[in-house]
Specification:
The protein contains 16 helices and 14 strands. About 40% of the residues lie in helices and about 20% in strands. The strands form three sheets. The chain has a six-stranded mixed β-sheet, with helices on both faces. A four-stranded parallel β-sheet has the order 2-1-3-4, with helices on both faces. It has a four-stranded antiparallel β-sheet with strand order 12-13-11-14. It is elongated. The relative contact order is 0.08. By secondary structure, the protein is α/β, with parallel strands linked by helices.
Amino acid sequence: MADPKREELQVKAKRAILVSVISPSSHINKEQALDELKGLVETAGVKVVGTLVQSRENPHPATCLGKGKLAELKSMVKPVDAELIIFDNNLSPSQGRNIEEETGTIIVDRSELILDIFATHAKTYEAKLQVELAQLLYFRPRLKRLWTHLERIEGGVGAGRGPGEKQLETDRRLLDKRVAELKRKLSEVEKRRERTVSNRFQQLTVSLVGYTNAGKSTLMNALTGADVYIADQLFATLDTRTRRWELPHWGEILLSDTVGFVRNLPHHLVASFKSTLEEARQADLLLHVVDSSNPEVEHHIKTVNSVLEDIGIDYSNALLVFNKSDKVEDRSKLDVLRLKYENAITVSAVSGEGLDRLSQAVIDRLASGYVIVEIETPVGNGKLLSQLEEHSLILSREYSSDDTRVTYRARIARRFLPVLKSSEDTEIRIHDEGDQGSPNQLQHEESIHKV
């Protein structure tokens, strides 16, 4: 469903000119405007043979670039034998068509480049479905542009339509049918994931989120001893991975690694990957991992918070983690960040610096959302036991001398306290974690019973 010169399009191993149009009021200066795009094309395997940056308040509605810069771009193509022109901006279908006609070169915008990288890195069934859906939604409004090589037959009232228009309608119907099928399959996957995540309720979960290449996978390996794939490139991780993390003096929790974010992440891609981020949505705590050595660190924090908000995840429930402290040359920058973000933890997943402080901070945050309950009730109170097994971690149970009553001690999230109801024959006592000794003491009692 594409022009012959584009249907085999792969950005890998292509010679490309990189282009960006930035606003003068943007926090990004012209010298740094293409830094992230260079990281993206490096991940995609592109060879950069030229760059062009224009500063203007708003991109030109027809060509993104102004007339002069467009002529300059056209003159750059032949001398460097460029096969692609890659824009750091998201182009409308008409802008892409106009620039392609003017330069005679294939145009790829930021969204298409990211989709190409995701397609390359998608390994699991779910990730492949998500990427294909995002690609189809991206290309649907561009079908007309892709079929410009088919001429139309002009005629009067009642005249037949040209082959291009007929093919366009056929392609659109086929595309819409495939989109509906992918959405149905992803809905099934999402329901299975929701069931899987909800079944883990009795275990505390922590999710790693953050800008792409912030070191989330490396941190996960350092904390859990897992063998999660690591690469110094953008979007090395697409699928959510979950591993067991043994917290000192606390016990075992589940730690999940999620896909990284970038600025201007394609809307269709965000929508397609909502099910993958279900782990983060259901997590008891988010660890927002940031590359502290990156000069755009504060902008990365805002970008991640914005994406989390867009997909309905409460980012206020997050602990900020400044990773890669070993790569920071000017330590005063770390001091400034720590002053601005007082509760943040500074670590190096590579050297191990600060990992003990991170573990303790996670314990403190988890404990603040939980309480210890002691419940004395008749042995035959099966309804209460069912509620405890569904919503809490039972730490111990002690029976009376005549075996007619039982006292449960359990850890439960504060938000689920209303589920437990006292009655004439049931007494409930609530304590903060600190009132009952350390979690380690509680979990190592001989009478402990994990649900």
